[in-house]
Amino acid sequence: MSRREDREEPYEVPVGPPDGATAAGRTGGDDAADASGTDAVHISAPEHLDARHDRGFFGQPRALAHIFGVEMWERFSFYGMQGILLIYMYYSAAEGGLGIDQGIATGIVGAYGGSVYLATILGAWLADRLFGSERVLFYSAIVIMAGHIALAVLPNVLGLGIGLVLIALGSGGLKANATAVVGTLYTAKDPRRDAGFSLFYLGINLGALLGPLITGLLQSSIGFHWGFGAAAVGMAAGLVQYSFGRRELPPQSREVANPLPRKRYGVVAGIGAAGLVLVVLAVMLGVVRADNLAGVVIVVTLVAAVAYFFVIISSRFITPVDRSRMWGFLPLFVVNVGFWSLYQQQFTVLTVYSDQRLDRDIFGWTMPVSWINSINPVFVIVLSGVFAAVWTRLGNRAPSAPTKFGIGTVVMGGAFLLFLPFAGGGANSTPLIALVGILLVFTVAELFISPPGLSVTTKLAPERFHTQMVSLYFLSVALGTAIAGWLAQFYDPDDEVPYFTVLGFIAIGIGIALLLAVKPVLALMKGVR
Question: How confident is the model at residue 510 (pLDDT cuts 50, 70, 90)?
Fold first, then answer.
């Protein structure tokens, strides 16, 4: 630790959940964060950074508006593109698509989603060792925009491949650093911290709500590439706003927490180049193909997760209490994988279901498929306040993190079972209101797991491994997302009962197993709830 760090209060870098986070300071704010249903990796700006008199953005520091904007437009472009991505791949050329086999297409979507969360590790490393969070955020936004432009203007599979690679890398870099930059706007004791992160979270959900609406409308009326183009324009709007406002961000947002020694630059560059060559060779030799991409991402993510866990658990710098807490984190990791492997099927199975099984006719007008993806953000915005009120009223009697994880996974399994009454009904037979109700259950499950996820992860993290623990958490999401794509190949619209039954009861079983193990898990967590 540097002398400067000795003189100042240490940083804790806020990193949001898969789709963002709200946060509360861990100095007296842990309970507030959990009560508000927020994720908080806390982590504070130095005490000498006093922005108390800057209230230019709804009572918050004016610079928050710029991060709010770039994150909102990034989510607009991300979810807008993802809302039409799967049908673009499996629709025929006559319908404006690529004609890819539906099972392969769902696997690609899952692999892409998993790669986004894998890329957060690279984004966090670049920020911590080379460039600082703010710079990585800015250049990641440029990479994302380039990816959307590739999807919009490059033809066929070439545009698909280049676009998805760029968006995955850029989204990982932005996701890993946006909330870290927000954290630098506040001192540890600033009472506005919770509200500021809540406002940031609102921007995320606004983008997620509007993106599928706009891109879906364009896709259904004038074509897929116009939808992808709208995603590119949205990202460009956020980037322009941010490029003018980034100068207002504090210097701490650009600090490199653990600079890489210059003598190691060559070694790191060599490792990076070797990794890139290995990937290219694997593709050229047919080891990595479109039909096994989800499986490859699953294996890579699993290896990375095991390696991360082993590095932390075997470190001589952690205490016996830290080591016990790491073992307590393991069942939460496993359950989190199970949850996200079902939840992320919103972009695979649920897209196919909405396209082929859902009655989207509204007074003679056919609703675009992608609009289904805008339902969940509405429920998140509404129910976050409800959950916050419940957890606040319960106070110390609120369920522990393992209990919340178990309940959320059981509810998620129940959501899959809710598809059964509509199984076998034929094309366009499921009422829209029924799917809206099922997505409401999806959201309830999410709010039991996603908000406490990173919060409990950082509370369990050994002092020297905060960043690695956050990366480990994201690996659980990456693994679940890739599995969601892999599982989707087994979905058959003509024989849905086995699929929804088996996955629903597996999730319920996983959740019940954790609920039965709450006491021993809490014992391993050594006072962390």
Answer: very high
Burial 256-268 (b: 16+ CB within 10 A, else e): eeeeeeeeeeeee
Question: Is-same-fold flag (58-259; 308-528)?
Answer: yes
Q: The whole model's pTM is what? A: 0.82
Residue that is written with structure tokens 């809302």 in the block = 83
In CATH terms, 308-528 corresponds, of 1.20.1250.20, 3.40.50.11420, 2.40.30.170, 3.65.10.10, to 1.20.1250.20
Distances (CA, A) of 413 to 189, 349, 482: 40, 15, 18
State the first-to-last Cα distance of the chain, in angstroms, to the nearest integer: 29
Give the separation between CA 235 and CA 378, rounded to whole angstroms: 21
Pairwise CA distance, residues 91 & 287, whole Å: 26
3-state secondary structure of 430: strand
Tens of pLDDT, residues 360-415: 888 888 888 889 988 988 998 888 778 777 877 777 777 888 999 999 999 999 99
Q: What CATH number should be reported for the domain whose range is 58-259?
A: 1.20.1250.20
Residue-wise pLDDT tens digits, 220-257: 889 889 999 999 998 898 888 888 888 888 888 888 87
Nearest to 483, CA basis, from 347, 331, 320: 347
- H helix or E strand, kind and range, residue 184: none
Query: Which pair of tokens denotes residue 280?
Result: 């290219």
Tally of residues, the chain: 529
Binned at pLDDT 50, 70 and 90, residue 36 comes out as very low
Residue 46, classed as helix, strand or coil, is coil
Helix runs in 344-465, H state only: 349-356, 375-394, 401-417, 432-460
CA torsion, points 398, 400, 402, 408, in degrees to nearest 10? 10
pLDDT given at position 55: 62
Can you give 444-513 as a three-state secondary structure string?
HHHHHHHHHHHHHHHHHCCHHHHHHHHHHHHHHHHHHHHHHHHHHHHCCCCCCHHHHHHHHHHHHHHHHH
Q: Where do the structural domains in the chain lie, given as residue ranges?
A: 58-259, 308-528
